[in-house]
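#struct-help
A.M.: can someone run this one for me? Single chain, 100 residues.
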Amino acid sequence: MEDLTFSELMLSLGVGDAGVSLEQFLDIVRKKKEAQLYQNETRRIFTAFDIRYRGFLTLEDFKKAFRQVAPKLPERTVLEVFRHLVHLPPSQSFCSIRLL
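D.P.: on it. C-alpha cells below:
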C-alpha cells in the first residue's frame, strides 16, 4: 500500500472534511497493517533466496527459488515473471533484480 497524505486518504474514503468513523479508522489501520505484514513476509522470503547477500536476485537465483517453492511451474512462466519484475520501476518492487 503506498503512502497517502491525509487529504488523499480522506478523499479516497469519500468523507471529505466530515471525518472518519471508528469503523472506517479500524478498516484503514487493518489494511495498513496487512500491507506491512505482506511487505515484511516478502522481504523475508527474498532474503532467504538472496544467499550471497547481494541485495538482488539474478535470473539463476530466481529460477532456483521457483524450483524450490513451485517445482511444477513451467520455466516459461518463471521467465515471464522475472522479465515483468525487471521492467517495474523501483518504487513498485520490493527488491532489486538484475540480469548478470
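A.M.: thanks! Residues 53-100 form one domain.
D.P.: also worth noting: The helical segments are 6-13, 22-49, 59-69, 75-86.
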